[in-house]
Design goal:
alpha/beta; 5-stranded mixed β-sheet; about 15% strand
Amino acid sequence: IIWFDLETGGLNPFHHPIIEIASLDNYGNAFQSLIKNDRPLDPKIVQITKITDAMLENEGRNHEEVVRDFYSYISGDFLSGGSRTNHRTFMIAHNGDSFDRMFIKTAFKKYGLIMPSNIYFIDSLHLARLVMPERTSFKQEYIAERFKIHNPNAHRAMGDVLVLSQIWTHLVEKF
């Protein structure tokens, strides 16, 4: 299982860049990177994420390098001494069907990377709707509140990933 989250420069995967990727798998392996951007961030994005142009310039890595490293991470290159296995990998994101998955697929396509056939995407939003039909809002922050999970780093990719992994455990138990 890989819980993952992206921060982006907007909502359109064809026109807005990924500015941060983070993930955590059920073995404890983590991936996190800011990504350099070739245009200034919208002030609204800076306000939401607290990610600045200076942070991307100083701490970010090249887009292609990060995308290729993330591809290796989800492909399981870090397992078994670097040899790939035929394990099934479930990538979980909140609102992933409408957002994160589209950005990842677009980024992979840009660099000629084909999604491995052993990768399956799961959107935790669907499970939340199924097990909590009484709720009217399914934003990750509201579900976290419901389960008394505090997120001091909301709208930063790793902060959201850590909370998502806890939310997922609660949702599965409730299911």
